[in-house]
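ok here's the first one, seq then struct tokens
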Amino acid sequence: MEYVQMTLTDWLEMKKKLEADLTGVTASFIRIGYTLRRIEDERLYERDGYSSVAEFARKEYGLSASTVSRFMAINKRYSIGGYSEKLAPEYAGLGSSKLSEMLALPDSDLSMITPETPRDTIRELKDFNKQEQEGSSDLDVFLLEFFSCCVGDWKSAEPTEKSLKEALNPSGSRVYRKGKYFMAFYDADIKIKRFGAEPTSLSWGNLAEWVQEHTEELIGMIRKEKDAGSTEQGQEEEEEEVAPAQKSGKSAERLNKTPDPEEKEQGQEEEKPKDPETAEKEEIAPAQKVEKPAEILDTKPDLAENMNPPEENEAAEAEEPEKTAETLDKEPVSGEVVDREDELENLIGRLKEHVENRHWNLALFTAEKIVKRLGEKV
């Protein structure tokens, strides 16, 4: 098949046409449902000798009874006024397959569905409505459970509306369900439903305020994840250290083998003891080798850095490699002074931003960090 290069204009026109065709399919569903309802309500099927609209549609058009029922139900629920040939504006953009899936949802749940909602999400919401699950009815508890299960998604985010939206909902549609709650993320807002109750909307701005109010709990989650990561890394290093000792091979055999007298006669001499001075030099030499620099830490500001109290930062500094006496006595070069000034300017700028946004916890932590840096020897 020969492919012709498509321009941007052609591509946009193709997408527009596809959207129109899909919208047309939905509109057709509404019109077909309306026509079938009129035939039933006015008993028009009797003109051709049929006993019901289902019999009429089956013999005339090959439609099953369930298909006829679905067409009529879609028209009744989604047409203007519940009885017309036109789709109600609030359902524009939803395909016929989604509208069909939504028939099993209560009217109150329709507000949770948007054109961006995947069909699987509708099915999951239907399943959620079938049976109440165990769990707390407290919304704060539910939100804390959500943040706890996905620390890796938000730990590098700022406690702001834009940053949280990018971290928690990068694809534009996300669902989280646990216990008595079902939560659907969209670009505009967040829909939350408690089992047996009507859905509510939570704006991204309100979520950012909630994050600031629960700073202490969120910091604890980040610390817990770091501790778990450190434990796992330590176990992996232990396994790597044990592995070489399990290698027997020829080396172990040669160590355990008694030398054959004939091998000595063929020119193999016993290793002579080394001169004490030579041995001492060889032992000192490895210590003079330059060690591989410690892994550079990611300096990107994250939620933990912005909200962590100074005690955690001091603990992190204590984990740095121990400096030698030569390094401690060495005077700082000019570049280090510039870096220190840049860091202070950055912290001061961040402090102003937190004060303007009335993030008092963040402002307090940043101010303490500035005082600490000013007290250090430059």
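and now the second one, same deal
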Amino acid sequence: MTALLSLDRVSKTFTQGRHEVRAVDDVSLDVIQGECLAIVGESGSGKSTVANMILGIYPPTAGTIAFRGEALPAARTLAHRRAIQLVQQNPLSSLNPKRSIGASLRLPLDVHDLGPRAARAARVGVLLEEVGLPADYARRTPESLSGGQRQRVAIARALACQSDLVVLDEPTSALDVLVQARVLKLLNDLRKGRGLTYVFITHDLSVVRNIADRVAVFERGRLVELNPTETIFSDPHHPYTRRLIGAVPVVTADEVRLRDRLMENDNERA
């Protein structure tokens, strides 16, 4: 298995007045090419700080982050920014309300000079269709779309750069349950179809179960467990992981049967 991204003894310390806060403490982990690695933990666990260091928003205080075997510099190049893209939690705040959807999707194509200029408008339409939206949505504004549609646009924008690694920072937490399920299915389909690699930041373990290959559990800035998703849910090793699993709402057998029956009916209608 090839590591696309590697963190080697990475730490991040913030200074607040005369006090120092160790947000991430001596973390080492690999993200394997083609996998979805979920990083989970409560607020303040360090998971978002790890994401920001991967993206180059924060430089590590100690340790190194390597991409394709080469250490990433503190000041990321345009090529690095193209290769590692972000999908944010709130798509409304991440999209410029003064730009049309088409203009927002075309911007990364122009910045990174991807494809012939004359073909970029058509490329925008292809990107929209790839995330399940009509090509004519390019003329709309973010405020005219639903939350799920805006998140699809945000995903399309990350894909526009033909990136290798996508960091998803709580991408479904602002969505209702049905829309959340559709977005997760879209992300799974895109990962398989494009061969993408995901780092999925979340506090919601029910989401993790539906998308992640492996789970990294963070507590107070430290990586306390890293295991396949099946192991995390069937045989969690660390006491903190067991507490997180114990806090997940339990679904009864009757509810599972009802869900499966309803999903079968929906599939037949489709």
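notes on #2: The longest helix spans residues 177-194. The first strand starts at residue 3 and ends at 16.
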